[in-house]
């Protein structure tokens, strides 16, 4: 095992323990915000359950850090259920999280649209209902790289997840009821579109092998966050040319009204430095304004990653006054903090 | 057949998925996310452990225990799908101590129904249903023809394997492989592959039994 581990350029003790050890480390780093329930494998807001507050939980495979554990705290999630790397968590985790955070006002499950996540959350919501907890579920599906049709599992959930967790979390913190918080998650999802690109594969710790090979000088357009191939491969052009493709893909699907105010989220996939992400944001900002769309809010950084994949994604959220206000509201989590 | 048949079936699956782990990972990496082999090994390892510590439950209850264990250990799509399948199959047997070939057909038919219901998949979608449905149909029709259980289950396992290979030219319409659209064509479905292993494992358990 030790030799195998050393072959990978990763900091590991035992590949099978990577998720558990990382979660313990997250809790050790932020004892003021979260606690780690090792038996249930969930990250829970330190002061949960909060009586009378609608609770939000999310979860999914690990490997996308800081999603979701890094977003547990004030004004965002009440709990996160991390599965193994790129593998959905199991219903027992979601049920334990739901019970740990339910303050009597109901619990919203924010589910990214992947078959495994959807099935496991479905079983968990049924179990929670059996125990008398009010649960609503919203599936996030904002990735325009996937054709949304009867012949696919539907669009994948990517960057809009972070925005929905922040905005709906702020509403819950402010005392909104279950229907309102649920509706906000849906609204953010309905008004968001994303598109990602990759310059390299990622290497899951369990296999130690790259998921795909991308020849030098090539870019994968429409990449997923688990190394799923995208729409097509192309020769890697300049950053400006790449952003042209990304903005076109997102804007042509979102179809924002001329003069719309948007939140532009330039996200790194884990292996792309902030130097390049800000360069990309500069291009995005310019091109959006040229297209008659005003980026009045933004988020730049690696927030929904794919291990060490080099790449980036753009998520656009068409804002209104209420969404903007909720975005600006205080948040204090391991990965996002402002206004506190 | 009785509780020992079920235990033996689960052990055979554990051996098979362990042996084919890397192959399943490779198939999944091509059109999914590369975790299928690892997940199945983790799940059936836990199932064998759970059955080892069980104190003499009837076969139906063992299947329910196996299903519950899969749901709580596997994650991904295969955990809920196989977990629900085995639980549904187990419920068919209730508390009875033994079961015959036609009852085994009903167990598998219930398992298939639950997979199709939860996954909303049909034959031709490039999923585990492509291997499971022909296996159930073959076992039912061969037993009805009066073929011995050993031969019928062998033919059913062969039908699952043929179904598994039939996924190669198909375009995926469910699960993560569907994101690839036409690019999923030419790859064998990992879920259909592990399903064929599971039915072959059943054949080994049944044959050993008789």
Short description:
Chain A is an alpha/beta fold.
What does the model show?
- The complex is a heterodimer of chains A (340) and B (210).
- With 340 residues, chain A is of the alpha/beta class.
- Chain A has 2 domains: 2-190, Rossmann fold, CATH 3.40.50; 192-318, Dihydroxyacetone kinase, domain 2 (Hypothetical Protein Tm841, Chain: A,domain 3, 2-Layer Sandwich).
- In chain A, 33% of the residues lie in helices and 23% in strands.
- Chain A has helices spanning 2-7, 18-29, 91-101, 115-130, 160-173, 178-190, 239-254, 274-290, 321-328, and strands at 34-37, 42-45, 55-62, 79-85, 107-112, 135-140, 192-198, 218-221, 232-235, 261-268, 294-301, 311-318, 331-332, 337-338.
- The model of chain A has no long low-confidence stretch (mean pLDDT 94).
- At the A-B interface, strand 4 and helix 4 of A face helix 3, helix 4 and helix 5 of B.
């Amino acid at each position: 095992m030790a030799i195998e581990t050393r072959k990978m350029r990763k900091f590991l003790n035992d590949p099978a323990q990577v998720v558990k050890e990382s979660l313990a480390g997250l809790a050790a780093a932020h004892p003021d915000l979260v606690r780690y329930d090792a038996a249930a494998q969930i990250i829970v807001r330190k002061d949960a359950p909060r009586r009378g507050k609608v609770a939000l939980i999310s979860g999914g495979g690990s490997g996308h850090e800081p999603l979701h554990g890094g977003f547990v705290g004030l004004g965002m999630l009440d709990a996160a259920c991390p599965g193994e790397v790129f593998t959905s968590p199991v219903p027992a985790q979601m049920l334990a999280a739901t019970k740990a955070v339910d303050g009597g006002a109901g619990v919203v499950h924010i589910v990214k649209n992947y078959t495994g996540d959807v099935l496991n959350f479905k079983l968990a919501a049924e179990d929670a209902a059996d125990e008398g907890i009010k649960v609503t579920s919203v599936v996030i599906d904002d990735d325009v790289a996937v054709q949304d049709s009867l012949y696919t599992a539907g669009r994948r959930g990517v960057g809009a997840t972070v925005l929905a967790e922040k905005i709906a979390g702020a509403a819950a913190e402010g005392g909104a009821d279950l229907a309102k918080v649920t509706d906000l998650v849906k609204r953010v999802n309905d008004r968001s579109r994303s598109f990602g690109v990759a310059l390299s594969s990622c290497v899951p710790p369990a296999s130690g092998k790259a998921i795909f090979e991308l020849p030098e000088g090539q870019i994968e357009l429409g990449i997923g966050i688990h190394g799923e191939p995208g729409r097509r491969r192309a020769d890697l052009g300049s950053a400006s040319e790449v952003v042209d493709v990304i903005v076109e893909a997102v804007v042509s699907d979102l179809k924002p009204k001329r003069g719309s105010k948007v939140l532009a989220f330039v996200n790194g996939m884990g292996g792309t430095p902030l130097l390049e992400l800000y360069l990309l944001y500069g291009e995005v900002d310019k091109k959006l304004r040229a297209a008659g769309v005003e980026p009045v809010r933004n988020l730049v950084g690696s927030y929904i990653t794919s291990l060490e994949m080099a790449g980036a994604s753009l998520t656009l959220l068409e804002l209104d006054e209420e969404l903007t206000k909720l975005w600006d509201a205080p948040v204090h989590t391991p990965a996002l903090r402002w206004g506190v | 057949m009785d509780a020992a048949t079920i235990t033996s079936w689960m052990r055979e699956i554990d051996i098979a998925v362990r042996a084919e782990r890397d192959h399943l990972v490779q198939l999944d990496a091509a059109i999914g996310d590369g975790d299928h082999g690892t997940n199945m090994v983790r799940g059936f390892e836990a199932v064998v452990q759970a059955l080892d510590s069980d104190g003499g439950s009837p076969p139906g209850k063992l299947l329910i225990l196996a299903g519950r264990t899969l749901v709580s250990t596997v994650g991904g799509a295969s955990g809920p799908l196989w977990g629900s399948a085995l639980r549904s199959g187990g419920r068919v047997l209730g508390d009875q101590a033994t079961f015959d070939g036609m009852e085994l057909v009903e167990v598998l038919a219930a398992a298939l129904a639950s997979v199709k219901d939860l996954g909303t998949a049909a034959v031709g979608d490039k999923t585990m249903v492509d291997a499971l449905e022909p296996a159930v149909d073959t076992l039912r029709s061969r037993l009805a023809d009066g073929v011995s259980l050993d031969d019928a289950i062998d033919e059913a396992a062969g039908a699952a394997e043929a179904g598994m290979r039939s996924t190669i030219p198909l375009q995926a319409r469910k699960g993560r492989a569907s994101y690839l659209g036409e690019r999923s064509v030419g790859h064998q479905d990992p879920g259909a592959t592990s399903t064929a292993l599971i039915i072959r494992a059943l054949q080994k358990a049944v044959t050993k039994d008789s």
